[in-house]
């Protein structure tokens, strides 16, 4: 294993090259996974335009728009790390509405980009959109691995326990045990296609075999 320091701009370029090289027959489903402190949403956003410049249509989806209703999510309180780990994400809905429609067999490209507005605790009423063949789905989220979600490529933004604790806001410190479980039970650095060490967002590093 080799850890190669890389600039943020070059990281985006290299990831875009790798994603654009996916067969895309008929679509490519890509996840950017990481704790909120690692800013997976920002990296996924940064990949959109480079992929379009490489000739790939892109659809951005946030896993945070597929959380369960508060009655389920917060059944054990607002700060239960086990519920955060197990119950917050509606993985079934994410698969049914986003990933399965882009499957090689049986997919029609018709995707629901968001399902649930967690802040208002109600359906988003989003309309379905169609991703053209050859397009790339970019999903950002946290704790995505270990759920049997059918992604074609997963980028995991890895934080050391110290960096995760430092960069997590005090009001979210209760989530830290969930990431300890994730590291132990799922081992995302082993499961992901690409691992990026992101302790310092200004100085990421690619982990290579």
Structure commentary:
- This protein has 209 residues and is of the alpha/beta class.
- The chain has 8 helices and 11 strands.
- It has helices at residues 8-20, 40-53, 70-73, 81-86, 91-99, 161-167, 176-186, 188-191, and strands spanning 2-5, 28-34, 58-62, 110-111, 116-117, 122-123, 129-130, 136-141, 153-158, 194-197, 205-208.
- The strands form 3 sheets. The protein has a 7-stranded mixed β-sheet.
- The longest helix is centred in the first third of the chain and has 14 residues, at 40-53.
- The model has no long low-confidence stretch (mean pLDDT 96).
- This is Uridine kinase.
Beta fraction of the residues? Answer: 15-25%
Compute the number of structural domains: 1
CATH class: Alpha Beta
> Per CATH, which architecture?
3-Layer(aba) Sandwich
Total DSSP helices: 8
Strand-pairing-aware structural class: alpha/beta
For the sheet with most strands, the description reads: 7 strands, mixed
- Mean pLDDT comes to 96
How far from one another are the termini? 4 Å
- Helical residue percent? 25-40%
**Per the principal axes of the C-alpha atoms, what is the gross shape?**
globular
Q: How do the helices and strands follow one another from N- to C-terminus?
A: EHEHEHHHEEEEEEHHHEE
Widest sheet: strand ordering: 1-11-10-9-2-8-3
Q: CATH-wise, what's the superfamily? A: P-loop containing nucleotide triphosphate hydrolases
CATH topology: Rossmann fold
The unreliable regions are none
Using only C-alpha atoms, the radius of gyration works out to 17 Å
Question: What is the β-strand count?
Answer: 11
GO molecular function: kinase activity
Keywords: Kinase, Transferase
InterPro entries: P-loop_NTPase (IPR027417)
Organism: Wenjunlia vitaminophila (Streptomyces vitaminophilus)
